[in-house]
Write a structure and sequence with these properties.
Length: about 130
Amino acid sequence: MKFLDHSDEAKEVLKQATIQWLFQACMLVEGQAVALAAVHTSRLRNSIDYVVDEAELIGYVGTNVEYAIYVEMGTGEFAENGMGRKGGWVYQDPSGEWFFTWGQEPQPYLRPAFRKNKSQVEALAKEIFGGI
């Protein structure tokens, strides 16, 4: 009797299946996030993307737009975590016009994008890993 070790091949099959699942799951969530993103200039919506780190087996969906967190979580009196600035403030826009604000209501797009696709992401995992 001879023992054959196929653990490396099995690990590679699992890794490739995981990568396939991450790409498909991220595409689903990214598409939903784009559809849900608030649009003023389209900068935020157009910046939403995904990255799959094949070495770490992690998928990321998000944006590098500096104000994205304020859209997702809100600001000032309306901030979701209650930690926003109280009492309002004034600011000057790039054209030089002054404005007063109490803040901005949250307009979540990333978290709902995942929640709306959670069952599809789980079904993808069952489909991809069930076929191994």
